[in-house]
Design goal:
Blueprint: H1 6-24, H2 31-38, H3 42-48, H4 52-63, H5 77-94, H6 98-107, H7 110-137, E1 140-142, H8 146-167, H9 171-187, E2 190-192
Antiparallel strand pairs: 1-2
Helix pairs in contact: 1-2, 1-3, 4-6, 4-7, 5-8, 5-9, 6-7, 7-8, 8-9
Length: 197
């Protein structure tokens, strides 16, 4: 691919990295495995990225981006909460576990920890905002700050992805095995909003 612009070359290599990680995990995403997946010579990788750590950093920047919060259509708060959580799991399943793999790997590496932590904080902030909107829509309030709840729910989400991969089942398995139970637990921290005095 001698005439391929460097930006396009990077994009194809990042795409290849996602496929390798989805199939075999971050540990398998060696430089050689990535270029083989992309159908490029090894020199292409070193032309596009300074080293393997820079490649992973760019991959984390691209992949660890939270999707928009779900907008439930259910009529009651418990049903809407379950729908909200279930749709989060469907979003997570669509990443094929790549986000969870990168998050775990990134927080354990000095050169990747800061960026990974910032990206995970984005997940927490967005989820906290979504939980607050959901409560507001139904005239409810959380007895625990949404910011704290979001961290716990996101920990559950990552665990659900790992469980799904271990069981070798898809999004429907994770949804059926967890969203309802998590909604019941989370719903226990909500109550009708008190009128402002």
């Amino acid at each position: 691919m001698p005439n391929l612009p460097i930006a396009r070359r990077r994009e194809l290599l990042l795409d290849a990295g996602v496929r390798v990680i989805a199939r075999s995990g971050v540990a398998a995403a060696t430089t050689r495995a990535i270029v083989n997946e992309a159908g490029m010579p090894l020199a292409s990788f070193h032309y596009a990225f300074t080293n393997h750590e820079e490649f992973l950093l760019r991959l984390i920047e691209r992949q660890l981006v939270p999707a928009p919060s779900p907008e439930p259509t259910a009529d009651t708060f418990p049903e809407a909460l379950e729908q909200f959580l279930g749709e989060l799991l469907v979003q997570d399943a669509a990443t094929q576990g790549v986000v969870a793999e990168l998050a775990i790997y990134g927080v354990l590496r000095d050169g990747l920890r800061e960026e990974t932590s910032q990206r995970l904080a984005d997940y927490d902030r967005q989820l906290a905002d979504g939980l607050q909107r959901l409560a507001d829509d139904f005239g409810m309030e959380w007895t625990i700050a949404p910011e704290r709840l979001a961290k716990q729910v996101n920990a559950w989400r990552f665990g659900a992805v790992v469980q799904s991969a271990y069981a070798r089942r898809g999004a429907s398995y994770v949804h059926e095995s967890g969203a309802k139970e998590c909604a019941i637990l989370l719903g226990g921290t909500a109550r009708p909003a008190r009128a402002a005095s």
